[in-house]
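Example 9 (inverse folding). The structure is encoded as follows.
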C-alpha cells in the first residue's frame, strides 16, 4: 500500500491524493483545481490542468466535499479516461453537478449540448453514500464517510485496507471544519486510525472565538453604516456565503429585536451578487435536514436564516453592472457578498475596480488567501497605500481592509490537534498536507509532541 499526493502538497489548492493498494488497484481522494501561483510537483497548475499521473489502475474517486479546489479537475480526470464511480455524501451529490456544470462552462465549453452530455455521464457515475456507513469498493477496500463540519456534505474518509495480514485504517481528512461552524455540527474524531493524511490550512493559527468574530463583524457593519460606503466580502459560493448570511440574519434580527436604534438595522441591504452562490444557497435551504440543531430551531421559530427580508440576489449581468455603478456613485451602505473568495475572478473584481480607491469602502476577508491571488495582495498591501493588479491594471488601495478568521470553515491548530488527540487508537503515521510551509511545520511539531516516538510525522 502506498499514498501519493498529486496536489495540495505545497499549498492548499489542487487537492488530489491517491491510495494505491497495488499496481492494479488504487483510488483517488478528490481531484481539485489549482489556484493562484500554486502548482503540483510535476508542474500542473492553474494553466496546465491535464492529468499528469498514471490513472489506469484508479478504480474509484472519493469526493470529500464540493469546493472547486477539491473537485474542479474531475472533467480532466474523465477526459484522461477515468471510468470508475464517484462516491460522495448525499448532500455533496446534490451540489456536485452544479459545481461542475459551472467549472465546465468556465474552463471547457459553453456549448450546451456538450455540457449536457458531460453532465449526463457525470450523473451516472455519482454514487451518494449515507454518512457513517461502510461501503465496499473492492475485496481489498471498504470506505466510510464521516461528517467533517466544513461545508454542507463535507466528509472525511475512512479507508479500511484489507489484506491477509489484517486490516489497516487510512484516513483522509479532506478539509476539516471548526467546532463552531454555523449551520453544521462539529466533526467527531474517529475511533482509530493507522495512517492519517491531514490538512493544515490553519495549522499555525488560532481562530477568533465565535463571539469575538461576530462582534467584529457587527463593528465593521456599524462603522460602515455610519460613515457610508460599501462592505465587500469576497466569499466562496459554497459554505462561507451561507455561513455569513446566517450570521448577518442573526445580527440584524437581534439588533432589531432589542431596538438598537442607533443604527437603521432594518434598512441595511445585503446583496449576494453571484448566480452560482444564489443557486447553492437554494440547495442549502433544501438540505435543511443536514443542518445542525441550532439552525433547525431558528427555522421552526419562523425565521429564514438563508432568505431573510433584507437579502437581495443578483442574477443577470446587467443588474450586476448597474449595481456596481450605483454603489460607486452613492456609496450607500450595503453588504455585498461576491465570488471568488480569493478575488482571482468572478464578479468581485468589478466591485474592487470600482471601489478599491474609495476610502469609505470596507473589504472584509473571511477566508484563506493563497499567494499570487489579488486577495492575498490586497490583504498584504492594503495598509500603507499599496496597490493590486487586476486584469493587468494597477489599482491603488484606499479602502479599509479587514480580516475575520473565524468564518474560515477550517479547523484551527487546536482543532487539528484535538482531532488526533481524541482518537482512541492513534495513528502511527501522519502525513501533513494542504497548507503553507509554516502551518505544516508548526503542526508537525505539535503532533510530534503529542505522539512522541511512536509515530512518524511527515510533510510529503
Ligand atoms: Zn474546502
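The amino acid assigned to each position is listed next.
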Amino acid at each position: 500500500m502506498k499514498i501519493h499526493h498529486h496536489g495540495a502538497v505545497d499549498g492548499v489548492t489542487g487537492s488530489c491524493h491517491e491510495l494505491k493498494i497495488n499496481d492494479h488497484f488504487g483510488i483517488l481522494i478528490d481531484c481539485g483545481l489549482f489556484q493562484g501561483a500554486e502548482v503540483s510537483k510535476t508542474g500542473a497548475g492553474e494553466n496546465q490542468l491535464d492529468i499528469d499521473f498514471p490513472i489506469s489502475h484508479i478504480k474509484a474517486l472519493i469526493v470529500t466535499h464540493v469546493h472547486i479546489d477539491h473537485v474542479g479537475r474531475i472533467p480532466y480526470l474523465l477526459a484522461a479516461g477515468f471510468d470508475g464511480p464517484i462516491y460522495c455524501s448525499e448532500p455533496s451529490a446534490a451540489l456536485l453537478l452544479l459545481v461542475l456544470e459551472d467549472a465546465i462552462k468556465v474552463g471547457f465549453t459553453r456549448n450546451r449540448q456538450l455540457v449536457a452530455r458531460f453532465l449526463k455521464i457525470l450523473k451516472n457515475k455519482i454514487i451518494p453514500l449515507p454518512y457513517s456507513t461502510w461501503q465496499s469498493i473492492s475485496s481489498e477496500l471498504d470506505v466510510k464517510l464521516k461528517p467533517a463540519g466544513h461545508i454542507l456534505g463535507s466528509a472525511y474518509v475512512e479507508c479500511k485496507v484489507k489484506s491477509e495480514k489484517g486490516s489497516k485504517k487510512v484516513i483522509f481528512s479532506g478539509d476539516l471544519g471548526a467546532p463552531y461552524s454555523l449551520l453544521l455540527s462539529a466533526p467527531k474524531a474517529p475511533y482509530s486510525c493507522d495512517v492519517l493524511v491531514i490538512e493544515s490550512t490553519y495549522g499555525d493559527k488560532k481562530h477568533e472565538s465565535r463571539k469575538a468574530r461576530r462582534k467584529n463583524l457587527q463593528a465593521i457593519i456599524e462603522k460602515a453604516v455610519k460613515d457610508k460606503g460599501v462592505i465587500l466580502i469576497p466569499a466562496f459560493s459554497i459554505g462561507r456565503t451561507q455561513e455569513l448570511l446566517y450570521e448577518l440574519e442573526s445580527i440584524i434580527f437581534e439588533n432589531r429585536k432589542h431596538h438598537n436604534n442607533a443604527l437603521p438595522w432594518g434598512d441595511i441591504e445585503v446583496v449576494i451578487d453571484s448566480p452560482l452562490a444564489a443557486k447553492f444557497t437554494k440547495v442549502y435551504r433544501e438540505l435543511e435536514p443536514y443542518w445542525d440543531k441550532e439552525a433547525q430551531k431558528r427555522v421552526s421559530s419562523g425565521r429564514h436564516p438563508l432568505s431573510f427580508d433584507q437579502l437581495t440576489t443578483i442574477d443577470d449581468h446587467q443588474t450586476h453592472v448597474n449595481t456596481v455603478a450605483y454603489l460607486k456613485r452613492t456609496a450607500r451602505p450595503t453588504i455585498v457578498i461576491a465570488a471568488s473568495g480569493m478575488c482571482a475572478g468572478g464578479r468581485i473584481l468589478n466591485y474592487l475596480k470600482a471601489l478599491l480607491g474609495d476610502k469609505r469602502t470596507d473589504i472584509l476577508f473571511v477566508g484563506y488567501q493563497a499567494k499570487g491571488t489579488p486577495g492575498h495582495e490586497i490583504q498584504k498591501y492594503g495598509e500603507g497605500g499599496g496597490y493590486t493588479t487586476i486584469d493587468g491594471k494597477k489599482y491603488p488601495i484606499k479602502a479599509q481592509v479587514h480580516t475575520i478568521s473565524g468564518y474560515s470553515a477550517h479547523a484551527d491548530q487546536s482543532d487539528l490537534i484535538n482531532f488526533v488527540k481524541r482518537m482512541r487508537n492513534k495513528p502511527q503515521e501522519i502525513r501533513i498536507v494542504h497548507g503553507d510551509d509554516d502551518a505544516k511545520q508548526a503542526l508537525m511539531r505539535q503532533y510530534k509532541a503529542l505522539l512522541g516516538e511512536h509515530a512518524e510525522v511527515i510533510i510529503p
